[in-house]
TrEMBL record:
It catalyses: Hydrolysis of proteins to small peptides in the presence of ATP and magnesium. alpha-casein is the usual test substrate. In the absence of ATP, only oligopeptides shorter than five residues are hydrolyzed (such as succinyl-Leu-Tyr-|-NHMec, and Leu-Tyr-Leu-|-Tyr-Trp, in which cleavage of the -Tyr-|-Leu- and -Tyr-|-Trp bonds also occurs). The lineage of its organism: Eukaryota, Viridiplantae, Streptophyta, Embryophyta, Tracheophyta. GO terms for biological process: protein quality control for misfolded or incompletely synthesized proteins. It comes from Pterospermum menglunense. Component of the chloroplastic Clp protease core complex. Its main location: plastid. Its EC number is 3.4.21.92. HAMAP family: ClpP. This is ATP-dependent Clp protease proteolytic subunit. The gene is clpP.
Length: 195
């Protein structure tokens, strides 16, 4: 096995001792992990795995474990769109932190199959950009594009949380941190717990 491939202990059902397996074993069990900032590389890896696993078996659910500070909007939207595209339901599980784009992916899981661990934290806010570095013409174009993206993301939160547009819009004006139970009350997750 190449150096750097993570290994984890895994106990097969019916066996007493766990064996160390590489992460690919987890993929076989349809367990996907977002444990970093969302960027184009991890987005391509997760979307590719979702498509591959759904082709392999389109009836067995996928599980996306999220512990992410957020990241790129376009890369995150690619993961979200893939979650909606694939036939199997995608369970989303927040462990640690689902902030910004991480919370967007968390809310994107199959309704009734979005979970937060009891000590998890969730944070929502509006999408940001680095347009302050752009020239005037580019600034205006980027600001218009950012408004379109914000409307789209706000619409997803409204649809998937059941909260009114004004509530979601107001919450996205600033960083709103929530406990797991607050995220459940807000409609971002359906269940809080480990089971």
């Amino acid at each position: 096995m190449p150096i750097g491939v993570p290994r984890v202990p895994f106990r097969n059902p019916g066996e007493e001792d766990a064996v160390w397996v590489d992460i690919n074993r987890l993929y076989q069990e349809r367990l996907l992990f977002l444990g970093q900032e969302v960027d184009i590389e991890i987005s391509n890896q997760i979307t590719g795995l979702m498509v591959y696993l759904s082709i392999e078996n389109d009836t067995k659910d996928l599980y996306l474990f999220i512990n992410s500070p957020g990241g790129g909007v376009i890369s995150g939207v690619a993961i979200y769109d893939t979650m909606q595209l694939v036939e199997p339901d995608v369970h989303t599980i927040c462990m640690g932190l689902a902030a910004s784009m991480g919370s967007f992916l968390l809310v994107g899981g199959a309704i009734t199959k979005r979970i937060a661990f009891p000590h998890a934290r969730v944070m929502i806010h509006q999408p940001a950009s680095s347009f302050y570095e752009a020239q005037t013409g580019e600034f205006i174009l980027e600001a218009e594009e950012l408004l379109k993206i914000r409307e789209s993301i706000t619409g997803v939160y409204v649809q998937r949380t059941g909260k009114p547009l004004w509530v979601v819009s107001e919450d996205m004006e600033r960083d709103v941190f929530m406990s797991a139970t607050e995220a459940q009350a807000h409609g971002i997750v359906d269940l809080v717990g480990l089971k």
